[in-house]
Design goal:
427 residues, alpha/beta, Rossmann fold, 4 domains, 6-stranded mixed sheet, 4-stranded parallel sheet, 19% strand, binds guanosine-5'-triphosphate, binds magnesium ion
Length: 427
């Protein structure tokens, strides 16, 4: 399932293009991150090149002259593969491989490769395979029966159209199968989630850039025993654990896949159902690695992905992590009102984080007052199920209740709401 050969450590030339308005500094930071991704995928950096351009070349991404230079460089450092720090179009990739005389891949392929290595559950594997196939389909070239990444070109076109068509059909069939398997898994997941919702528990999700410390935090909070690794995308499958907040309220806490700049849209698509747990949360704890080179850029990248998965509206609590080794964490927190500083590793600040979570959840729900006629026992039962009943008094012909409810749920009980103002007038 892999895009990168792993029988030996491949030698990689990395290529970035600095485009306006982002500029050179950001392109360099992105290349640094690509180096981490390449290393995580199991390959070695042989050289890196940054080119300044006004726009990518439609045919070759970098300029044609630059491509020739890259060919000479790749020869001299004995590189196996050239990785471009952006998504290449299938045509650009084809043209580049012809000029470079070796495999040309893009950032997306590297990230997909890491995901492929880290997928362990049935659902994770299916999601990654689907993303890989969606990436490969438009890049399929007629070359025997293989779905090879190797360059085609004059003289290597193989048996031609027919075989290509066969490959393509096989691929599409497999994709359809995976899509239907995933739909089934997603239905199961949804049913499970619904039964949890019926239990009236609120849910929070730990989100953040990859390697921010989300799994470490879940372990610190719940003894979940989730895999923690100093490597990118260690977690692909969400874990949900119960956790008691300081006030005693139990909540469900999920650890999820980490995000990254330019997270391939094929992956976002494939992981959509997994990520529903995020968009349906009551609160996001957005964990930021205080020790990262550019934490603010990581915050932006995470928010971009959150918007893509429909979670932009979910309230967010920022937590700057790794305070034990990053003095910058406290400074960052100071510039983000309402945020907290923690060390998921040592546990420092974690109590404050939980208090903040508890406070935020409380402020998100509102206390309302209702009068429900005795004939509507079902409504009282629903209030107990979906909210927190604070006071319940039995009056002559009705039950009077004070309850805490999410605004969305409160709206459903509109006809039983006591209008506080009118109540004041009457007395
Ligand atoms: N010093 C220090 N290291 C930490 C802290 N929290 C996490 N780490 C380290 O950071 C690395 C990544 O931690 P994980 O918990 O796997 O990070 P994650 O956010 O789950 O990462 P992905 O699942 O890959 O997205 C590990 O080496 C952790 O030991 C912390 O508070 N202090
Ligand atoms: Mg993790």
């Amino acid at each position: 399932m892999s895009l990168i050969e792993r029988s030996f450590r491949e030698r990689i030339v990395m290529v970035g293009v600095a485009l306006p308005p982002t500029g050179v500094a950001q392109a360099e930071a992105s290349l640094d991150e690509l180096a981490l991704l390449v290393d995580t995928a199991g390959a070695d950096e042989a050289a890196r090149v940054l080119q300044r351009r006004d726009a990518p070349d439609p045919a070759t991404y970098v300029g044609r002259g630059k491509a020739g230079e890259l060919h000479r460089l790749s020869e001299s450092v004995d590189a196996d593969t050239v990785v471009f720090d952006d998504e290449l179009t299938p045509a650009q990739q084809r043209n580049l491989e012809r000029i470079l005389g070796r495999t040309a891949i893009d950032r997306t392929a590297v990230i997909l490769d890491i995901f492929a290595q880290n997928a362990h559950t049935q659902e994770g594997k299916a999601q990654v395979e689907l993303a890989l196939l969606r990436y490969r389909l438009p890049r399929l070239r007629g070359k025997g029966g293989t779905l090879s990444q190797q360059a085609g070109g004059i003289g290597t076109r193989g048996p031609g159209e027919t075989q290509l068509e066969v490959d393509r059909r096989r691929l599409v069939r497999r994709m359809t199968r995976l899509e239907s398997d995933l739909r089934q898994l997603s239905r199961t997941r949804r049913t499970q989630r619904r039964s949890r919702q019926r239990s009236r528990r609120r849910s929070i999700s730990l989100v953040g850039y990859t390697n921010a410390g989300k799994s470490t935090l879940l372990n610190q909070l719940t003894d979940a025993g989730v895999l923690v690794e100093d490597r990118l995308f260690a977690t692909l499958d969400p874990r949900t654990r119960r956790l008691d907040l300081p006030g005693g309220e139990p909540v469900l806490c999920s650890d999820t896949v980490g995000f990254v700049r330019k997270l391939p849209h094929q992956l976002v698509e494939a992981f959509r159902s997994t990520l529903e747990v995020v968009s349906e949360s009551d609160l996001l704890v957005h964990l930021v690695d205080g020790d990262a080179p550019d934490p603010e850029a990581q915050i932006d990248a995470v928010r971009t992905v959150l918007a893509e998965i429909g979670a932009a509206e979910v309230p967010e609590l920022l937590a700057f992590n790794k305070a034990d080794v990053a003095p910058a964490a406290a400074k960052l927190a100071a510039s983000h009102p309402g945020s907290v500083t923690i060390s998921a590793l040592t546990g420092a600040g974690v109590d404050d984080l939980l208090t903040a979570v508890s406070d935020r959840l409380r402020s998100l729900s509102q206390a309302i007052e209702l009068v429900v006629p005795y004939s509507r026992g079902d409504v009282v039962a629903a209030l107990h199920r979906e909210g927190e009943v604070l006071v319940e008094a039995h009056e002559e012909s009705a039950t009077r209740l004070r309850a805490r409810l999410d605004p969305a749920e409160a709206a459903r009980f509109g006809e039983f709401l006591v209008d506080a103002d009118r109540e004041g007038d009457a007395s």
